[in-house]
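Request: Mind sharing a record?
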Amino acid sequence: MLDKIVVQTRLAVAAAKMDEPLAVIDSQVVSGSFAFSAAIKKTKWALIAECKLASPAKGTLCNKYTVLELAQIYANHGATALSVHTNAAFRGHIGDIVKVKAAVDLPILCKEFIIDEYQLYTARAAGADAVLLIAAILSDAELVRFLQITRELGMDCLVEVHTLAELIRVQQTEAKLIGINNRDLQTFTTNIAQTFTLLNHCEPDHVVISESGIKNGEDAQKLKTAGVKGILVGESLVIANDVAAMTRELALSGSK
């Protein structure tokens, strides 16, 4: 599934370059101020709340709210930052960042399958404060180059790892924000035990965010106790009967 999404993303990027060349996008870029990492570092516990309408594995997750409506609920109930999908496989669009940025005063992570530097410029032009880099789909050289470009653009990178081998690779770069994804890329099942396992191998100067499979405040508290700085949560929020209440639960549980 991941391979399929990457192929589709390469085709989409190629089409976008034809429509709006990099020079055009670059002319729209205003350098950022690393607001994403600043927001996470200044709080004791960070909830990165994800505006997630669908997933390739489970289809539609949320019909009740739009991306903008979810962002506003999250912002009003304790989220530290927002994650906005821009990939079509998740019913996302780069324009969603523009809409959310205009309405909500929280840092935004562009959730995308970044495989081309063009996407970094596009994300910043739309107003993103950070991007997700997935170690599993990038070479060492690409990781280094993309980290350098985002630094020049004033954006942060949350670099996502799934395995110890990926963590070792990432810790050899300048990355400081590491996301441990609890999803097995072969089976797509999730288990937060993966965070506890990899956390033992994280260097102390890194800020660690746990991603995927976090279901409630109890999970959040366990992760906080283990030494995680925050969590990135999408599905558990958007499928909740009361999104606002679940946002408060996840935001407050880790701060106790």
DSSP finds twelve helices and ten strands in the chain. The longest strand covers residues 46-51.
